[in-house]
Each structure stands twice: as C-alpha cells, then as structure tokens.
Amino acid sequence: MNAGAGGPAAFRVVDAQELFSELTYPVAVASLEQMFRELDPGTLVERSHVATPGGTLLLMPAVSSESVGVKLVTISPANQQLGLPTIQASYVVFDGATGSLRAVLDGSALTAIRTAAVSALATTYLAAPDASRLVVFGAGVQASSHVDAMRAVRPIEEVVVVSRTSASAERLTERLAADGLRARVGGPEDVRHAHVICTCTTSRTPVFDGTLLPSGCHVNAVGTYTTDARELDDAAVHDAGIVVETREAAVAEAGDLVMAFGASTAARIDADLREVVRGTVVQGRHTVFKSVGLAIEDLALAGVGSWAR
C-alpha cells in the first residue's frame, strides 16, 4: 500500500505464501535461538484472553528494540465442522522508534511457522541426534508444520499421524509419502516406538497413555494454552525432564503441567528455553517441551523478513 500526500508511510501486506517462502525453518529456528539467548524476561508482556461468541480472541503484544507488534487471534473450535480454520489471525508490525505501521502479516501462517519452529528449537537441544521416528497427534496446519519443522532439525524417516479425523490424517500421510517419507495413519499406542512426539490438537484431555513413552524420547506439547486443558497425562510428565518457554507463562497457562503438579508446577520445571540455549542440560527418563506461545516469538520472526527492512 502506498501513502498519500502528507499521509502515513507505506506499509506491506504479507500473505501466507510470502511468509512461508522467506521464513524457512532453518531461518526461523536460528532467529528464535538468538532471541531466547538474548531474552530479557522483564520485557515480556502478558497476552489478553477475550471470550467471543465462537470461542476466544487473543491479543498478544510484544516490544523489541527495533519493533512493536501485536497478534490478533481468533480461536473457534466449532469451525472444524464448518470446514473453516480453527485458528485465524493477523499480525501488525510497527516501527519501534516512530510507531509507524510497517506491515500486516498473515497471522495464521506466522503462528504455524512460529509454533513449529519453537518446537524445532527445543527438539534441537532435547531430542537424540539420530531421532528418525516421529508420531504427530493432529492432522491440521500445526501438525503438518511440525512434521516439516522436525525434518529440518532431525533425520526423520518415518511419520505416524494420529487424528480423530481420518480424512485429514490420510491427506497428511499422502503428502508426506509424496515427499519420500514412510508415513501412515496410526493410533495413540504408536508412541511406544517414537523418538519424537508432537501433540498439535484441540483436545482438552490427554491424547495418549504416558506409561507407553519409551526411555529417551522427546515430546513437544503445543495444543493447549489454558490451565484446565491438557494433551499429556500425569505419567507423561512425572518422570520427564521438563522445559518451557518461561516459567511464568507455564504456571499461568500450561494445563499439561498445572493439572499434574498443582502448586508445585514452577518447582517441577527443569529449565526454560533461555537456559537451555545457554547451555543448561536437562535430564529425565524422557524430555517434554511444553509450549504455550510467547508474543515475543512472533515479533522475532516478523522482524526477519524483507518487509521489516
């Protein structure tokens, strides 16, 4: 968009295709790794939750030395039955010094890239270097993005897709098979043989039996963001080395942990991502990364593309 005479400065409208083209997973993971290494927790701003007729509106503001941004997200669970995306969003970026609007990004695409890239960053530090068998719960955008992100950081050869929607699971496995992977639709029991597991669902109750987890596997849990919903049961987290984005966000929003540990949640967290990328070693029978999403992650990626320069 071009500015009129005497009007505001021009800004870019960036669609999903351009975002996926510029924000490849190696680029996104590297940007997030740098952000977490340099992160000052005091600069984090809490997100706001607003109830809507169809679900929830999230407002996620963030500030860096160069930029100001806010993501506006609607989450409408019933959209699955309507053939519409469950999550829809826009991201607005402003110049940090002048407050001038720089760009409006496709927020759903940015969320898909960011969430999967954060999981890939955790996987880089927590999963076995030769991890090749992936089980993903869910068959939507986040599940598909997580498969691509895991392939960017680990030598994934086999993918099992577990979903309540068989048609979506079949479509995802067909796409993965066309990319040269061994891919099939499976069930929750397939976690027995997994090296990496990604839970990317809207389920409010555990999606697999944690006692089946093999020693040494790594779990990325990303689907829930409230303290009364969980994808992981007690067994999945009790013997795990647990990593989160920040302890404060996890205590406030990570039902997978809060429902298992209650008032002891903060004490049961072994490290946050800032500590992990700075060298903290996490130990456990297996590892769990619980993500609830931070607004600063979106801003870190929104500032990488050509639209921000």
Give a concise summary.
The protein is an alpha/beta fold and 309 residues long.
Describe the structure.
The chain is an alpha/beta fold. The protein is 35% helix and 24% strand. α1 packs parallel to α4 (107-126), α2 (25-38) crosses α4 (107-126) and α4 runs parallel beside α5 (141-153). It is globular and about 55 Å long.
Strands of the widest sheet, in order across it, are 9-8-7-10-11-14-12-13
* Proportion of residues in helical segments: 25-40%
Let me know the average pLDDT: 93
Helix segment count?
Answer: 12
**Which percent band covers the strand fraction?**
15-25%
Helix-strand topology string = EHHEEEHEEHEHEHEEEHEHHHEHEH
Q: Determine Rg (CA atoms, Å).
A: 19 Å
Q: What general outline do the C-alpha atoms trace? A: globular
Uncertain segments are 1-7
SSE order and pairing:
Layout: E1 12-14, H1 16-22, H2 25-38, E2 48-52, E3 55-63, E4 67-75, H3 79-82, E5 87-95, E6 101-106, H4 107-126, E7 133-137, H5 141-153, E8 158-162, H6 166-178, E9 182-185, E10 196-199, E11 218-221, H7 234-238, E12 240-244, H8 247-253, H9 255-261, H10 265-268, E13 271-272, H11 273-277, E14 286-290, H12 295-302
Parallel strand pairs: 1-6, 7-8, 7-10, 8-9, 10-11, 11-14, 12-13, 12-14
Antiparallel strand pairs: 2-3, 3-4, 4-5, 5-6
Spell out the key features of this protein.
disordered N terminus; 35% helix; 8-stranded parallel sheet; 14 strands; 309 residues; globular
